[in-house]
TrEMBL record:
PANTHER family noted in UniProt: TEKTIN, TEKTIN-4
Bias type Basic and acidic residues, positions: 1-12
Coiled coil: 331-372
Amino-acid biosynthesis keyword on record: no
A Pfam family that the UniProt record links to this protein: Tektin
Taxonomy of the source species: Eukaryota, Metazoa, Ecdysozoa, Arthropoda, Hexapoda
Subcellular localization: Cytoplasm, Cytoskeleton, Cilium axoneme
Region listing for Disordered, in residue ranges: 1-28
Designated name of the protein: Tektin
Originating organism: Lasius niger
InterPro entries registered for this protein in UniProt: Tektin-like (IPR048256), Tektins (IPR000435)
Gene Ontology terms: cellular component: axoneme; microtubule cytoskeleton; nucleus
Chief location of this protein within or outside the cell: cytoplasm
Any one Gene Ontology BP term: cilium assembly
Family: Belongs to the tektin family.
Amino acid sequence: MEHRDACGDNVEKPPAYLPQPEDDYPPKPEYSMETLGPWATGSVTCSTKGGITGLRPVADRYSITRYGPSEWRAHNLNIFQQSNEKICDAQVTASNAKQCVEQTYAAADKTQLETTEDLKTRANVVYRWKAELEHAIAANVEEIGLLEAERRRVQRSLSILTIPASIANEFLQLRSSRLESDLVRDNVEEQLTKEIALCSEIRNLLSRTYEQIETQMIELKTAKARMESDWSDKVDTYNIDSLCANLSNDSPLLLWKAGATRFPADQSTPTSYEDFTRETLAVGESARQGSINLRSTLNKIYINSVKDLRDQATCIDIALAENVKLTQDCLQQLEKELLRCLHELASTEKLIEELRDSTKGLNNAMKLAQTRLDNRLNRHNVESCRDAAQFALIEEVKSLGEQTSALLAELKCTEESQAKLVKTRGTLEHEIMVKRKTLYIDKERGQVLRSFFPSSTDLSGF
C-alpha cells in the first residue's frame, strides 16, 4: 500500500488494524522482552512476515500467542480484500442476472404478443369461413324447405289430377247412354277425349319431375350435412382459438402440457384448408342452384299444365247454365276464402309460437339480469356499491318485465284472433258444404260432374 505521493508528502495513514508502513521493515526493539514468569519465558524469535518480534509464543492457562502485530494486520487486509472481491463478483453476477431476466422477459413478451396476433388473425379467418358457411347453410335450409313444399305440391297435384280424368271418363260414360239419334261424336266428346289425354300427359310429366325432386332433395341434404359438419368443426376451432387468444399469463386455466408441440399426422395446411372449405361451399351452391333451376322448371310446367287444363275445362263447360255458373263462382270464391283463412290461421299459429318463444327468450334474459344482481349482493363492505352497473341491471329487470307483459298481451290478442279464425273457418266450410249441396240439387248429372273439376289453385298443388 502506498503511503507517500510522488513528491514525498505524507498521505493519510491507514487504520491501525491494517498493515502500517513500518511493517515493511524489520523492527528495532528499544528493549528486550523480559521474562514473563517462571511458567512462560519470552525469547526473541524470527518469522518471514513478522520479522524479529522479540518474543516466542507465550502460553499460559488463559491464552496463547502465535503471531505478531504485523501478521495480524496483514491477515486483516487479506480478509478485507477477499471480502471485497467476493462482493464485487456477486454484484457483477447480480447485474448480469438482472440484465438476462429483463432481456428474456422482453423477448418472451414480444413472442407472446406476436403469437396472440397470429391467433387473432387465424380466429378471424375461421370466423369468416364460418360466417360464409352459416349463410350457405341458411340458404340451403331455405332451399330444402322450398323444394319440400314443391314436393308436397306435386304430391297434391298428382292426387288432384285424378279428379279431372275421373270426371271426364264418367261424363263419357254418361254420354254413352244417350239415345241413338244423339250417339254422335260431337265437339263435347272430342274435348273430353282431349282432356283425358292431357291429364295422362301431365301426370307422366309430374311423376318424372317428382323423381327429380327426390334426387335433388338427397343432393341438397347431403351438401347440407357436409356444410354443417364443416361449420361445426369451425365453430369448435373458433371457440378454441378465441380462448387461446384471450388467455394470459395470469389465467387460472394454465397447466403443463407435455407433448403439446407435436404435429399430428392428419393436420391440414392453410391451402388445403381453404380448398376444402371452398369445395364444400361450391358443392352446396351447386346443389342449391340445381334446386332453383328445378323449381323454375316445375313452375313453368305448372303454368302451362294448369293453363291447358283450365282452357280445356272451359271448352267443355261452355254449356253450363248461368245460375249454375253463378253458384260455381260463389263456391270457388268460398274455397279461395277458406284457403286464405287457412293460410292466415297458419300464420297466426306460427306467430303464437314465435311469441311464446320470445317470452321464453325474455325469461332467460330476466334470469340473467336477476342472477347478476343476486351475485353482486355478495360484495362485502365498501365494495357493495350502488354503482352504474347496479342501476343498469335494475333498469334492465324493469324493462324486461314490461317487455314480457307487452308480449303476453300480444300473445293473448293473437290467441283471441286465432279462435276467431277457427270459428270463421268453420263458417266457411259450412257455407261451402251448403253451396255444394245446392249445386248437387240444381245441376243435371253431367253438370254436377263438371262442377267438381279442380280449380287452378288445387291443380297447382296449393
